[in-house]
Write a structure and sequence with these properties.
Rev_trsase/Diguanyl_cyclase; 8-stranded mixed β-barrel; Alpha-Beta Plaits; alpha/beta
Length: 471
Amino acid sequence: PFESRGGQGLSSVGSHVTCISLRDVTARRLYETKLEEMTRIDDLTGLLTRRGLIDAMAATGRGFSVFAIDLHRFGHLNEMLGREKGDGVLQAVAARLRRHAGIDGLTARLAGDVLCFATPGIEGEDALADSAADLLALFDTPFGIDGIKIELNARIGACSGSDNLGHPGKWVEAAELALLDAKRVGGSGWRAYDPASTLRRARSRLLEAELRTGLDQGQFFLLFQPQVSLTSGRLAGAEALLRWQHPTLGMISPAEFISISEANGFICDLGQFMFREACKAATSWPSHVSVAVNISPVQFLRGDLLSDIRAALAASGLAPHRLHVEITESIFVERSEELFSKLDALRDLGVTIALDDFGTGYSSLSYISSLPLDKLKIDQSFVREMVSDPATQSIVQAVMTLAHGLGLKVVGEGVENALQSEMLAAMGCEEGQGYLFGRPQSARQIQALSAAHSLLSGGHDVSLGALAQAG
């Protein structure tokens, strides 16, 4: 009840009061609508966003062929022209793409410089190729921005979306996965979605996630392939080869895990492991038997290579000259002062430096004269072909002459039969490596092989057949 200041009741009518508050929420509703619109429409280009595209395709209840379009080197263009003109380029591309889409097609901006075109219907392989070619043709004509003609290349990933792939979001993801394959092609190009490629990427991600665990748990180990003197027949050394025995996936190919570890930098950890284990193993071999460790270009340029080698030599007590460090020609892509200083530092450590797979990379016959090398390894492709190809035989002979003129020893790789070995020996090649002399084997087997070679040779020449049987 209402009361006066003196406590007197003023009225007995109406013992409760209802208060009504009115607020104008128009501005808030407009703001929420704007936010909702921003999630579906890209503010810069006016195209659909990823969410807007997926919702639009889902609303039709039909299948779509989806094309993810990447503007090649757009980041570089942005840096040169500035963000404002870069935005203008995106808007121009979006406008051209929207005109191409017409009434039925859908267009979207999936990421910074990745656009998307979706057309109703499930296209077969040929139709998908025609549609991709039509999209690439959109970039044949330069884009005019403030009086500047700008030429662009595009890479396209294509996918025919249907219920078999799941909901429309999966169609877009499939097109983006295909785009990853297309990006591996120089210049313009396109790739269709390949489920097998997706499985390979999934496997790569799994292996990448388990590299560290594998190293910590002792899943990695070394095998060694013999290197034999072609004159005495004795074991001269062995090349360390890294292997990975995964507990559930089995033996993982080096071609698979090396490329993954180079991409994420873990190759430096694997290289450190190889030096440590190889030097340790070689201490149990005769003093005339060396151990060779191949260095990844990533490890050479980014890793703490010198410290790793010093630590391995110190821990094992191996004489430095018995460690042969094999570098590949790919490190010479950038011929910097840092490259030469690292090679000189390796030479100062006392280790032997060998150039691996010579003839397959970037170095020239004259260029190697400036490098602090001790050995040259002729790639197995030359050894394999020289028997039947006189031109290849001439190349091998020329390389041999050059190497000896520079004071380098030569190793022939991939020797698989006696004829190859005899031809290399006749040319003056000092050592051979390949299945003729032995497959990759354990450190203990290398020790036994060295004893067998010494027993067979007894200081005299022996037949290659006997050496092959010993290997």
